[in-house]
Specification:
Blueprint (H helix, E strand, L loop, with lengths): L30 H4 L12 H5 L28 E9 L10 E5 L25 E5 L5 E7 L4 E2 L7 E2 L2 E7 L6 E8 L17 H5 L2 E2 L12 E4 L2 E2 L16
Parallel strand pairs: 1-10, 1-11, 8-9
Antiparallel strand pairs: 1-4, 2-3, 2-7, 5-6, 7-8
């Protein structure tokens, strides 16, 4: 299914099953305990999962897509950036009126979470999350700060590259896809055990947002462009549902 009933169904695009990593990848330590070791059971979705509960679109606030200002009303610290792109179906058509949420570490690489023990300081004016609805052509945009890299206990001296988590909802909360956006030129991408579970180089490249100087604002902020493709051979890698919607 697509994320919008208003989009006409196009021809079926067969998926490349090698596009996604194996569940058991010892280089990514956490997968060793989380990966299933028995055959998977396919469960059909229920009517409630396909149709609701739905998000109230009137609940989007004026600053919800402005992570620099939406936590306290005072500007967050860090390199200001515009994150923008389109949510697309397998035929390259924009998917309108779709809820996109993001969350991220602050400019120092620390999350506003009680279990984040990294020594980088919290920014008192940065909450680290935002949301927006796609426009008629599937476009979305966030104003935020570029997140910092941070260490994590996968192996000795293991660091996550700078990244932003992205969640895309369908017509109900049961239809949710999650992915990550990385930044062009970050040398830690090639060293990340999570990224390296993805076997195809072009699949990794699809998660890296290129610098977009055409959308950068002089003397203010840079911009990065990241399109999210829901299905088909060019679909984005989604962490929670490898086959896409």
């Amino acid at each position: 299914m697509t994320l919008s009933n208003s989009i006409d169904r196009g021809p079926l695009f067969f998926r490349d099953r090698d596009w996604h990593p194996a569940a058991y990848t010892p280089g990514y330590k956490t997968s060793m305990t989380r990966a299933p070791f028995r055959p998977l059971v396919s469960l059909g979705s229920t009517l409630s999962e396909e149709t609701g509960p739905a998000f109230g679109h009137s609940m989007i606030g004026e600053l919800d897509n402005n992570l620099i200002m939406n936590f306290t009303g005072q500007p967050a610290i860090g390199e200001r950036i515009i994150m923008h792109g389109r949510v697309l179906d397998e035929n390259g058509r924009g998917v309108p009126n779709t809820l996109v949420e993001i969350w991220q570490a602050n400019a120092g690489g620390r999350y506003r979470h009680k279990k984040d023990g990294y020594q980088a300081p919290l920014d008192p004016n940065f909450g680290g999350c935002g949301r927006t609805l796609t426009g008629p052509d599937g476009a979305y945009e966030f104003l935020t700060v570029r997140p910092g890299a941070y260490p994590w206990p996968n192996h000795v001296n293991s660091w996550r590259p700078m990244h932003i988590h992205i969640s895309v909802f369908g017509s109900g909360f049961g239809q949710r896809l999650i992915t990550q956006m990385y930044f062009e030129g970050d040398p830690l991408i090639a060293k990340c055990p999570i990224v390296n579970t993805i076997g195809q180089e072009n699949a990794i490249e699809a998660l890296v947002a290129p610098l977009d100087m055409n959308r950068a604002i002089p003397m203010d902020c840079l911009a990065y462009k990241f399109d999210i493709v829901l299905r088909g051979r060019r679909q984005s890698f989604f962490e929670n549902r490898t086959e896409g919607l």
